[in-house]
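Q: Got one fold?
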Amino acid sequence: MSVLDKLKQMLKGHEDQAGKGIDKAGDMFDEKTGGKYSGQVDAAQEKLKEQLGAQEKPEDNPPA
């Protein structure tokens, strides 16, 4: 069993909290680096959310 599989199993039922944690960590990283890597951080956040099943629902995040 891979580490990612273990994480998925542990987070089952807590996808929303995992998504919030991913967002918070990415935002903190952006703050510490002055936004220098914001594009890469955003892409990594989305990929992590996708992998862990913490993807936001489209109706919760309307287009700007």
About this structure: Residues 57 and 63 are 12 Å apart (CA to CA). The two ends are 40 Å apart (CA to CA). Residues 3-51 form one domain.
